[in-house]
UniProtKB/TrEMBL annotation:
Cellular compartment(s): Cell membrane
NCBIfam families in alphabetical order: drrA
Alphabetic keyword roster: ATP-binding, Cell membrane, Membrane, Nucleotide-binding, Translocase, Transport
Protein name: ATP-binding cassette domain-containing protein
């Protein structure tokens, strides 16, 4: 069945009892793209993902996966994708190669086909040298790469990644990013949920932002940043005891809200407020408040997240 979209979600609704969890969510995932699904805890991301993967039935609306309807063609839908979660679905008593061979046979491959596919995946995910070692010797990143390799045994056209890099160190996270981008370069479509906004910013072609079960916005990371407009000023105050005073100066001069993270003060600027930044710096100098790392640039995806969502009640 030919279709431009790998996934088409149209006005889905889902309630648990009388509590609405997903309220009219719609979005499309194009073939061959990485699509990020973001939102605060309790926003409805997991429920939406479960509906798309047929683990839950929606109360209203339709979901098409490669053109197949999740309500009436569930078996066909499940043949279109694989899913990788936060925890590895691997047998600790087997080696990486043995795990891959077993999952290959479970996916209908012959013994020879499973062997060939296992070798391909071990090479792709840089696990060849450790293929026959006990999994007790594997790091968290190696286990996660193995889990991702296992999910690709059957060459699914769509891959769901539910917070795949949670708990990994930054270096291992980047290795996983590279592996995901390699998959997409070969034609796989990826729907990604993540708690790391820099991950979505780096990986996703487009992002859907959900809050309280409702769709807030959809767009590229750049488009989302443009929605909140303007520029961002970040200034790090040297003396922590001067933070409150510095915050008061910025609020007084710019009449804007200020966020504080450690010793860094951040505020969003429009074109008019941007021209008043020298006044802020003059006041800081006048009050002998020293600062470092003053930057003015475009807002981050974190700013978009904080501006457009309100989080769980």
């Amino acid at each position: 069945m030919k279709t431009e979209n790998a996934i088409k979600v149209t006005n889905i609704k889902k309630s648990y009892g009388k509590k609405p969890v997903v309220q009219g969510v719609s979005f499309n995932v194009k073939k061959g793209e990485i699509f990020g699904l973001l939102g605060p805890n309790g926003a409805g991301k997991t429920t939406t993902l479960k509906v798309i993967t047929t683990l839950l039935r929606q109360d209203e609306g339709t979901v098409l996966v490669n053109g197949f309807n999740t309500l009436t063609q569930g078996r066909k839908v499940r043949q279109q994708f694989s899913i990788t979660g936060q925890t590895a679905a691997i047998d600790e008593e087997l080696s990486a190669r043995e795990n891959l061979l077993i999952f290959g046979r479970l996916n209908g491959l012959t013994g020879a086909e499973a062997q060939t596919r296992a070798n391909e995946l071990l090479l792709d995910f840089d696990l060849s040298n450790s293929a026959d070692q006990a999994l007790a010797t594997f790091s968290g990143g190696m286990r996660r790469r193995l889990d991702l390799a296992i999910s690709l045994i059957g060459r699914p056209s769509i891959l769901f990644l539910d917070e795949p890099t949670t708990g990994l160190d930054p270096r291992t996270r980047k290795q996983m990013w590279q592996a995901i981008q390699k998959l997409v370069s070969r034609g796989t479509t990826v729907l990604l949920t993540t708690q790391y906004l820099e991950e979505a910013d780096s990986l996703a072609d487009r992002i859907a932002l959900i809050d309280h079960g409702r769709m807030i916005t959809v767009g590229t990371p750049s488009e989302l940043k443009q929605q909140i407009g303007g520029m961002q000023m970040r200034v790090e105050i040297t003396n922590r005891q001067k933070l409150s005073q510095a915050e008061a100066i910025i609020k007084d001069v710019l009449s804007l809200p200020v966020s504080i993270d450690d010793r860094v003060l951040t505020t969003l600027l429009d074109n008019i407020k941007l021209q008043q930044v020298p006044q802020v710096l003059a006041q800081l100098q006048k009050m002998r408040i020293s600062y470092t790392n003053l930057t003015i640039g475009t807002p981050s995806l974190d700013d978009v997240f904080m501006k457009l969502t309100v989080g769980k009640n």
